[in-house]
Amino acid sequence: MHTQSRGPQNRSESGANRVAPAFDAELFTDGACSGNPGPGGWGFILRVDGVEREGSGGERRTTNNRMELLGAIHGLRLLEQPSRVRLVSDSQYLVKGLTEWIDGWKKRGWRRKEGPVLNVELWQELDELRARHRITAEWVRGHVGHPENERCDRLAVSVIDQFR
Question: 12 to each of 34, 50, 131, how far by Cα in Å?
Answer without folding.
Answer: 35, 12, 34
